[in-house]
Amino acid sequence: MIVSIHQPQYLPWDNFFRKIKKSDYFIYLDNVEFQKNGLQNRNQIKTASGSTWLTVPVKHNLGQKICDVEIDNSKNWRRKHWKTICENYSKSSYFNEFFLVFENIFKSSWINLSELNIKLISEILSILNIKTKMLKASSLNVDGNSSELLINLCKEVDCKIYLSGEGGKNYLELDKFETAGIKVIFEKNTEQKPYKQNHANLGFVQNLSVIDNIFNNGNKVLD
């Protein structure tokens, strides 16, 4: 069986879900340090002036784990994000089919960043009809750092194949995986194929949140 492991991101892009679709198990790596200015609390959508960031404001301390990071609700980020999404996708072909799923989330109160991300990812998985079994690293009795942590998570779910992004070649200690009897396979970083987007006059913009593709092209975007 194949396992993939990644930090829970905010409204991730298409390839995040392609990786999950190829796996039997996916583990949210929520028990590692929060990355400031990463994709754990922000992502991009397309507007009439180009791509723009949607950023969830957070309260966090240096070294704090992702699962412990709280959202800064002193700022009305939920209203801002949903308004921006509606302004830019309400006329898209599939907006009316899927908007209620996201509207319900943005109209709900959230305290924990990881819980918000996982809820959004779960709903998107449902839209895309992906049945991979999802787990949280923080809920498993596993410790370790770097490659050791990943290996222990693979062992915990009894998976012998670990699916990594191509960037893993730069930091994974492959000898340790081999010693543990776990095969590492790397997913190639391929350029995203153009798909129908709004504001066609701006050209195709890569690496946007998957909602850009869903609202424009429906739930078969990974097929």
Could you explain the architecture of this structure?
The protein has one domain (2-217). The mean pLDDT is 95. It is globular. 33% of the residues lie in helices and 17% in strands. The longest helix is centred in the middle third of the chain and has 15 residues, at 113-127. The chain has 223 residues and is an alpha/beta fold. The chain has helices at 14-21, 77-89, 95-106, 113-127, 146-156, 174-179, 210-217, and strands at 2-6, 25-28, 42-47, 50-55, 58-59, 70-71, 133-136, 161-165, 183-187. Strands 7-2-1-8-9 form a five-stranded parallel β-sheet. A two-stranded antiparallel ribbon has the order 3-4. A two-stranded antiparallel ribbon has the order 5-6. It has seven helices and nine strands; from the N terminus they run βαβββββαααβαβαβα.
SSE blueprint:
Elements: E1 2-6, H1 14-21, E2 25-28, E3 42-47, E4 50-55, E5 58-59, E6 70-71, H2 77-89, H3 95-106, H4 113-127, E7 133-136, H5 146-156, E8 161-165, H6 174-179, E9 183-187, H7 210-217
Parallel strand pairs: 1-2, 1-8, 2-7, 8-9
Antiparallel strand pairs: 3-4, 5-6
Helix pairs in contact: 2-3, 3-4
